[in-house]
Amino acid sequence: MEYENQYQHIPKTKYDCLLFDVDDTLYPLNSGLSDHVTKNIIEYMITKLGIAEDKVPEMCVRLYKEYGTTMAGLRAIGYDFDYDDCHSFVHGRLPYEILKPDPVLKSLLQSLPIRKVIFSNANEEHVARVLGRLGLMDCFEGVICFETLNPINKTKTPDNYEDGADLKGSKQSTDFIEKFCETNQLLQKSPVVCKPFEDAFEQAFKIAKINPQRTLFFDDSIRNIQTGKDMGLHTIWVGSSHRTKSVDYALESIHNMREALPELREAFETMEEVHYSEMVAIETPVRA
Ligand SMILES: [Mg+2]
Known about the structure:
- It is a single chain.
- Helix 3 packs across helix 4.
- A six-stranded parallel β-sheet has the order 3-2-1-4-5-6.
- With 288 residues, it is an alpha/beta fold.
- Strand 2 (115-119), helix 7 (124-134) and strand 3 (142-144) form a beta-alpha-beta unit.
- It has 13 helices and six strands.
- It has two domains: 1-27 and 102-156 and 193-288, Rossmann fold (3-Layer(aba) Sandwich); 31-98 and 161-190, no CATH class.
- This is Suppressor of disruption of TFIIS like.
- It comes from Actinidia chinensis var. chinensis (Chinese soft-hair kiwi).
């Protein structure tokens, strides 16, 4: 409410919400944080789940590609593990110090008179740590993350999986991995709700009360952008200058958002006018 009140006197723009991914969107891919995430996922699969080292690289790529996240894929193919344990292994050991405060982005976000919401597949703690390192904690009205999209069923196996037992290291598990590696078909639906699947977007819209037609969606993943576009969002592909069918705007860097988007430029200008008129309003009684 406070957020709405803050901007209630500002004329309406084409958009009333900005929806942001976090990783490789609010900070650049070349920060190297994502490489550490990949390294930790591989280590988790080998040491915690006992998956053969030679199978892991291919599995990682395919699970990510077909299920949205590697974790969602691992659950889909029958691995039962604690989400928090996986998150703390993969994210809890990241060198967050490589991310530096970004006062330029902070200033850009704070000067935009539009509500801003985070929409990430990552867990809450990771999102908070990244936003904290970037100095952007106060810039967002809300956060949609792993826990928001998966509030229960923490250890529930897929409904359509025949054997609900813990398959870690079992023969069935090995067979399932073999089958997964040999086939090109999606074998099971994952119980994990995540981008780029429509149910994740539907939930995010509902939870954050988002009208996709009036929302700009920033993400570095073209798959997420494609679903976002199909769901009615206006899309901005961050980290690329290449526009495709689903991409309304392509930005090399999130820092370019003001220059690249006419509608946002308009919003910035509106905000500057408001600031100017507020200054005048304050100064008038002094002069009088
Ligand atoms: Mg991302």
